[in-house]
Design goal:
Keywords: Hydrolase. Pfam families: GAF_2, HATPase_c_2, PAS_3, SpoIIE. The strands form five sheets. The protein has a six-stranded antiparallel sheet with strand order 8-7-6-11-10-9. Strands 13, 14, 15, 16, 19 and 20 form a six-stranded mixed sheet that branches. It is elongated, with a radius of gyration of 37 Å. It is an alpha+beta fold. It has 20 helices and 27 strands.
Length: about 700
């Protein structure tokens, strides 16, 4: 702790070269803990501010005690700028004077920046201070006018630079209301736009909210000095309250209620059109000389050009954002048995928008399709293609096509558009009854699954070329399963790739976030899946490395009501679709495991394969596969009985054969007869139904 002053800042490190440079230029540093209201700094800062000569009783390291050290005229200015910087998480700076115990006055200049914590709240202000007493004395000497002109020239350059860097209308308003006019320290600044005769307050400092409420979004009276400035495209100056009352008696009543004594109304003219007005006001009577009026007029021109550019930017950005909002689904449909959450983070500005999209598609049979994709490019064209592709893919999926066919048709559709664009995509069909996922990938990222034990990892999915490159590309389906409560995560590459972060590192970050404990819904009142989506999106939004849009889609399989899967499996198998047989076998394995009769899996899978193969090889129609599990009550022994049926529309009945030792087929019905507890063939109007049953008694 320095005597009567600030303790040295701890915890921050600075480059080795910075301290000698600061020492050589007489610059001190400070650190203000906003929440605890404690000021810390180095010895030079204490000396510059004058704390080395202040008794300990006068300074308790709080912001209030620090302001008490300032000149009464400067303390309100410093307080307003600091409060504004804290509210907007921005920067601030000012000249101020301090008065020592012996009445000696010194001038100090500071520049600070507000830092936010992980929740986006103002936490600290850090910055520099340096002695400006010499500059103050110069202004008091005979060359005061020359120095003032130099400062004004420098001010115009700095203002032009700051305004040129302002991107949005909000940025322009912030820069304007923080401008320190040299030699003309204003007590109030207002920036307002003008459209269709109405005024909109864009930013203000030094005014209470109620003072401006009567003007915001209201018609500007024709007799108001601001209206005169807009009509004449020339500044209007009022040097005193008396002058204001004499020149504008119709609107004097509103001005009378303020504490202002003089005003400058600067019209903002861009491309020959008045788009707004700046108001610079002072608490005392002030008759501005020619140099001061020229300075304010020049400032008005700079603000006008910056505001016009910012309004165009905001309009373009809103157009682009609106276009993208229209392209993306407005709501995600609710599907019983699953919970979904989606997030979209835009990274571009102006018309630089991406072609990322997500979709959740209810499918026939109560299942659900998940889509995540990214069209090449970051422009309106890419967004338009994205919208067309999303609608086409959604239509193919809703028609009930299997995942591989959905992806192949989408690829042909994009190729037929002849846009020279391609798209990456992952499509996953989720069997809501059993938690089975059938995923197809076209040049996109693998899905990531959060398991029931809290671990998370990528699930490798067989990949194909991006959509639109090879219209005849055939895509392979990868199957994996979810247990109740497990979550599958699909995202675009903006989440896991950025400048300075490769794909492996990005996926590792994502899995680490997914592996963190989920929030307790009793404490938050929200579904843990929404909390998890917000956590992932928040980490991406806070990253300074992100340059791409992000689409994020999460689905949690909640499982059937009561925690037991539906004990019926029903699937249609296309004629001569031998590949479908393997899929049905895999679904049957999952179903029997979930039904608690895993001991039947091997036999049931073998016999089912024989019946299905027999049906589709020896008929010219589709086959319908159905598996049901029946349970006896505990009083009757609790026996479980599995019945598997295969229906077809052929009247040709199967014939049991006795093949020789070297025969490669013909043993299907022999296996059914030998392994099943019962089997048979039944007519069903048109066609027949083959069935077998297996039973198991629970162990005592």
């Amino acid at each position: 702790m320095l005597p009567g002053g600030l303790p040295p800042s701890q915890g921050d490190t600075t480059p080795d070269w910075l301290e000698p440079a600061m020492a050589a230029n007489g610059i001190g540093s400070f650190d203000w803990d906003i929440r605890r209201d404690i000021l810390e700094g180095d010895q030079r800062a204490c000396t510059i501010v004058g704390l080395d000569a202040v008794e300990k009783g006068r300074f308790d390291r709080s912001s209030a005690s620090f302001l008490a050290l300032l000149h009464p005229e400067d303390a309100p200015v410093v307080r307003r700028r600091v409060e504004r910087a804290v509210a907007e998480l921005g920067q601030c700076g000012a000249y101020y004077r301090t008065v020592g115990p012996n009445g000696a006055m010194r001038a100090v200049r500071f520049r600070g920046r507000v830092l936010a914590d992980a929740f986006g709240r103002a936490s600290r202000m850090v910055g520099f201070v340096w002695d400006a007493t010499v500059e103050l004395h110069k202004r008091d000497r005979a060359d005061r006018l020359a120095l003032l002109r130099e400062e004004r020239s420098r001010f115009i350059k700095e203002a032009a630079r700051a305004l040129s860097e302002a991107v949005t209308v909000r940025d322009v308003a912030r820069v304007f209301t923080e401008l320190p006019l040299p030699g003309l320290p204003p007590d109030g600044l207002v920036l307002a736009s003008f459209e269709a005769g109405r005024v909109q307050i864009l930013g203000a400092s030094g005014y209470r909210t109620d003072e401006l409420a009567g003007y915001d979004r209201s018609m500007l009276p024709p007799s108001h000095p601001a209206a005169e400035a807009l009509r004449g495209r020339a500044p209007v100056f009022c040097a005193s309250r008396e002058e204001y009352r004499e020149r504008y008696p119709d609107v004097w009543e509103q001005a009378r209620r303020t504490t202002r004594s003089s005003w400058a109304f600067l019209p903002l003219v861009a491309s020959g059109r008045a788009i707004g007005v700046c108001v610079v006001s002072f608490d005392d009577d002030r008759r501005l000389d020619a140099d001061e009026r020229t300075l304010l007029s020049t400032l008005g021109g700079l603000v006008a050009q910056s505001l016009a550019r910012a309004r165009l930017h905001d309009a373009e950005h809103e157009l682009a954002a609106g276009l993208q909002r229209v392209m993306l689904p407005r709501t995600v449909p609710s599907v019983p048995g699953v919970t979904t959450a989606v997030r979209y983070l835009a990274a571009g500005s102006g018309l630089q928008i991406g072609g990322d999209w997500y979709d959740v598609v209810p499918l026939p049979g109560g299942h659900v399709g998940l889509v995540i994709g990214d069209v090449q490019g970051h422009d309106v064209h890419a967004a338009g293609i994205m919208g067309q592709l999303r609608i086409a893919l959604r239509a193919y999926a809703a028609e009930g096509h299997p995942p591989a066919a959905v992806m192949a048709r989408a690829s042909r559709f994009l190729a037929d558009l002849d846009t020279d664009h391609f798209a990456t995509c992952t499509y996953a069909e989720v069997n809501v009854d059993y938690g089975v996922v059938y995923a197809v990938r076209a040049g996109h990222l693998d899905p990531v699954v959060r398991r029931g034990d809290g671990t998370a990892a990528s699930v490798p999915v067989a990949g194909g070329l991006p959509l639109g490159i090879a219209p005849d590309e055939e895509y392979r389906v990868t199957r994996f399963s979810l247990d109740p409560g497990e979550t599958v995560v699909l995202c675009t590459d903006g989440l896991v790739e950025a400048r300075g972060m490769d794909l492996d590192e990005g996926v590792a970050r994502l899995t680490a976030v997914l592996s963190e404990p989920l929030a307790d819904p009793a404490g938050t009142g929200r579904d843990p899946l929404d909390e998890l989506a917000d956590r992932i999106a928040s980490q991406a939004a806070d990253s300074s490395e992100r340059e791409d849009d992000i689409a994020l889609l999460l689905l949690r399989w909640d499982g059937p009501e009561g925690g037991l899967a539906a004990q019926q499996l029903r699937r249609r198998i296309g004629q001569a679709d031998l590949a479908r047989i393997a899929e049905v076998r895999a679904e049957l394995r999952d179903a029997l495991r979930r039904w608690g009769v895993a001991e039947l899996i091997d036999t049931a899978e073998l016999l089912s394969s024989e019946l299905v193969t027999n049906a589709i090889r020896h008929t010219d129609r589709d086959a319908m596969f159905t598996a049901r599990l029946y349970r006896e009550s505990a009083a009757d022994g609790g026996r479980a009985r599995l019945r598997v049926e295969v229906e077809d529309e052929s009247d040709l009945w199967p014939t049991r054969r006795t093949p020789g030792e070297q025969a490669s087929s013909g043993r299907g019905l022999m296996l059914v007869e030998a392994l099943a507890d019962g089997w048979g063939v039944e007519p069903r109007g048109s066609g027949k139904r083959m069935w077998f049953e297996l039973s198991v008694t629970p162990a005592e």
